Amino acid sequence: MSVPHAAQPVLDRIRVGSAPDSWGVWFPDDAQQVPWQRFLDEVTEAGYEWIELGPYGYLPTDPAVLRDEIARRSLRVSAGTIFTSLHHGPSVWDKTWAHVSEVATLTQAMGARHLVVIPSFWRDDKTAEEIEPRELTAEQWKQLTTGMERLGKQVRDEFGLDIVVHPHADTHIDTEEHVERFLHATDSDLVNLCLDTGHYAYCGGDSVKLIRTYGERIGYLHLKQVDPDILSDVVAKGTPFGPAVKQGVMCEPPLGVPALPPVLEAAQELNVDLFAIVEQDMYPCPPDQPFPIAERTRRFLRSCGA
């Protein structure tokens, strides 16, 4: 007697895409990165329809040029990305807003609705030098949370975009404790999360638990996995994030953790449309390495129903 297969979950609220990050792109201009034209060609050929802008200046910043380039490849943009140091308080606001305005202008022009906001690093990801304390003071937490709310309101008022804050390794919003503290201190009408499954696992968090506990605060997903063996070594040695990436701590799904099907199913159960953008940190990497991984990853996600 044959055992019937369980029905594949329907993941019709999940919109899968990829990002320059999956092609080893961390900087606007770097000799170790593939040219932007190659990224756009290969992300299309790998089967993705949505992309992020990546570091501002990597893709063309002239809206007319970029609109033409993505339209020719039947691509659409889901979000732009910014880095912020808002825990430093009002003194950094003007510089922050000048950069945000550039990225938001291009993001809006591409028809996207989200800005992914990454907090600044407390440790230099190349030298491992601690450039700030790992823990914020109570006053710095207040500056961070009120600054993010101000940013969320101004970005929405001026550009019609929603910010989604990205918990990230080697930043002050990383562990479950820090993420929950941040959520409790911010207004859900102004600030929500970009849950990066790899970074959250890297910092000891459980993505499915976070989605089920704070589902109304999950505004966006980055799909990523970590290699548990390499992560154990990274944690034991206190390796900073940049060198950890060079070690291969972020790996190709489904070879690492967390398992992505339960994450996608929990996200689907929220019953809202969510972007799920594949990001496999690989800087630096050989130019021929990203495409086959991206293609296999897209095939794997289709097998999960996404």
From TrEMBL:
SUPFAM superfamilies: Xylose isomerase-like (SSF51658). It comes from the Bacteria. Keywords: Lyase. Its EC number is 4.2.1.44. The keyword Ribonucleoprotein does not apply. The keyword Lyase applies. Residues 41-303 form the Xylose isomerase-like TIM barrel domain. InterPro entries: IolE/XylAMocC-like (IPR050312), Xyl_isomerase-like_sf (IPR036237), Xyl_isomerase-like_TIM-brl (IPR013022). GO terms for molecular function: myo-inosose-2 dehydratase activity. This is 2-keto-myo-inositol dehydratase. The lineage of its organism: Bacteria, Bacillati, Actinomycetota, Actinomycetes, Kitasatosporales.
